[in-house]
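Structure in, sequence out. Go:
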């Protein structure tokens, strides 16, 4: 007997009594974060570019309508369930989807993704998912948790071929870059080559995101990175689209939606120097022509600070914020990450960005396990002092200090797994993979509880309530600008930075407070205690903390 899904597939293929079948609908869902964390605030005003690019590719297909539901940016106008999340039952009644796709780019959202995939599958709707979580064993895991087809790698071409297969116009096994179950066993088709011709892709269409209010627009022109940091999932050499392509995204967003705030998601801004300089010039000319000032954030490496011409061009092009992966002020940790930087240079480089007028967002990882064979011990308390001193000296405006996450497919995860240090997913599931929770046995003499308390301490001390009073003081001190009449630009820059920082730090205090509250509500301490016991049992004779790195083989 045919299953409901097969019948739906057939129905998709058929025509209704000779008439062309109704248009079909693909719904792409960006699953909700498991709990409030320091990214939730930004997730409420932005969306994920990857699934949107995939949706836009489908939008161009004949006979298909597409919508994107971003559960992290979902306003009151959309139907909600009693937990305040999008009500998919109601959405299906309102606008039934024929196929549903999921964004699996953030591992912490995977349990929600599986919950939704099972929900749709139970209703006979074919499901698919893509994103950076789907590597190695996670592909089979997804296929056993409600996902019919996993898309491996970039999805813009694959999705079209998949939908043709759903329409019966193509054989599924001839589509590169996918995995599915055959007789209960996962089958992977041949690898798909990474995209190189970005000009053939349509410009991401943000109007496809329903019920969302976007204020920060993600745009990009680079895929891949090539730096191979040990903990990172972004692999493969960088592939570039031309600056005109990015300009097209930015200008169309400004002209159609009045967008002024952009996040260039490219991992390493400025890698292709000449093209980046050209992009900055194009940005400057456009803003001058339409008399607008954009606020653009980029992710950039510290060592680019040595390029004074680039920094000047970036400022002129409207780049106000630089997000920099400092990762750690501890030399041994930087080495273990393959970061190719040293802490002394990092401070002077950061100050170059500061002097050039950028607001610096510093991204840090606390308690990164040292490479095997290196003898190094530092208690958590001393590390906290190192971090705090470094942040102060490097003149960083805003910070995020997270714990190392053994992300799927990274060398870091392979190293820890080999050492049997990662707590089992049975106790500490994917929902904890967001950088806020200890997920493996840390280096001695630290304990998992200590490393978690340390990030709370650093963040809690950085973002404080009293910054609110400083905002008042800033306003009162505004007339001081009078003394800068000889150089009003410098005076304004100084005042603005202090004012903006106090606003950010007070806002940060509110976010960190909610984040701590979410921690407290969670059952994590009990689960961690259980995870430690289970791991302890699998390592006979080994204590709950990891042995000193001077003797890694003793495990
Ligand atoms: C912008 C960004 C953010 C933004 C927005 C995140 C978002 N996307 O919603 C913010 C700042 C909020 C953020 C936060 C975090 N991020 Co982030 N972020 C990025 C970044 C730099 C760019 C994402 C992007 O737009 N890529 C470009 C698009 C085109 O690529 P893509 O997303 O992979 O999409 C393609 C395919 O995957 C596929 N695809 C994707 N979805 C779908 C869906 C379907 C149906 C199909 C068919 C295909 C498909 O097709 C797409 C187009 O080709 C990436 C790095 C990177 N280069 O990807 C990290 C990255 C996604 N972040 C990462 C992490 C870990 C985090 C944090 C945990 C912080 C941290 N420790 O670094 C937090 C998450 C908090 C939480 N709750 O979990 C990791 C995720 C790895 C993982 N397995 O979880 C990445 C990959 C970076 C890394 N260090 O490895 N991040
Ligand atoms: S952390 Fe940044 S620089 Fe390092 S590999 Fe990932 S994207 Fe590239």
């Amino acid at each position: 007997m045919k299953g409901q899904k097969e019948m739906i597939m057939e129905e998709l293929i058929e025509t209704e009594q000779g008439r062309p079948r109704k248009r079909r609908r693909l719904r792409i869902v960006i699953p909700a974060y498991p709990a409030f964390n320091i990214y939730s605030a930004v997730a409420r005003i932005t969306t994920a570019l990857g699934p949107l690019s995939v949706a836009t590719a489908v939008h161009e297909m004949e006979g298909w309508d597409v919508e994107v539901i971003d559960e992290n940016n979902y306003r009151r106008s959309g139907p909600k369930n009693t937990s305040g999340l999008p009500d998919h039952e109601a959405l299906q009644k309102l606008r039934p989807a024929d196929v549903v796709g999921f964004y699996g780019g953030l591992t912490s959202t995977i349990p929600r993704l599986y919950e939704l995939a099972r929900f749709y599958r139970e209703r006979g709707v074919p499901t698919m998912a893509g994103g950076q979580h789907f590597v190695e064993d996670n592909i089979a895991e997804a296929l056993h948790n409600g996902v019919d087809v996993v898309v491996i790698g970039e999805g813009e071409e694959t999705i079209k071929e998949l939908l043709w297969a759903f329409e019966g116009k193509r054989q599924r096994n001839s589509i590169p870059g996918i995995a599915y179950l055959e007789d209960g066993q996962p089958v992977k088709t041949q690898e798909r080559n990474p995209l190189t011709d970005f000009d053939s892709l349509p410009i991401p269409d943000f109007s496809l995101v329903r019920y969302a209010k976007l204020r920060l627009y993600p745009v990009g022109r680079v895929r891949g990175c090539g730096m191979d940091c040990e903990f990172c999932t972004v692999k493969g050499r960088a592939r570039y689209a031309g600056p005109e392509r990015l300009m097209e995204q930015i200008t169309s967003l400004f002209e159609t939606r009045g967008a002024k705030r952009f996040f260039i998601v490219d991992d390493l801004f400025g890698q292709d120097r000449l093209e980046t300089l050209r992009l900055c010039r194009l940005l400057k000319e456009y803003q001058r022509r339409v008399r607008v000032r954009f606020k653009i954030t980029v992710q950039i490496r510290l060592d680019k600070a040595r390029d004074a011409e680039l920094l000047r061009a970036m400022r002129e092009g409207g780049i106000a914020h630089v997000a920099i992966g400092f990762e750690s002020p501890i030399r041994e940790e930087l080495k273990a990450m393959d970061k190719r930087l040293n802490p002394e240079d990092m401070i002077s480089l950061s100050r170059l960005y500061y002097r050039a007028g950028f607001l610096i967002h510093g991204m840090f990882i606390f308690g990164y396990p040292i490479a095997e064979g290196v003898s190094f011990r530092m208690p958590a308390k001393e590390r906290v002092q190192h971090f705090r001193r470094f942040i102060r000296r490097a003149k960083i405006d805003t910070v995020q200090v997270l714990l190392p996450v053994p992300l799927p497919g990274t060398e870091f995860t392979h190293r820890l797994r080999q050492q049997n240090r990662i707590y089992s997913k049975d106790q500490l599931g994917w929902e904890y993979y967001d950088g806020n929770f200890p997920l493996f046995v840390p280096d001695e003499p630290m304990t998992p509880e200590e490393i978690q308390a340390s990030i709370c301490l650093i963040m809690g001390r950085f973002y404080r309530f009293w910054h609110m009073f400083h905002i008042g003081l800033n306003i009162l001190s505004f007339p001081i600008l009078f003394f800068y009449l000889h150089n009003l630009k410098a005076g304004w820059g100084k005042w603005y930075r202090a004012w903006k920082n106090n606003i950010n730090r007070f806002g940060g205090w509110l976010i960190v407070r909610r984040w701590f509250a979410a921690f407290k509500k969670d059952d994590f301490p009990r689960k961690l205690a259980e995870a430690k016991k289970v791991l302890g049992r699998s390592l006979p004779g080994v204590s709950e903390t990891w042995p000193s790195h001077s003797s890694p083989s003793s495990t």
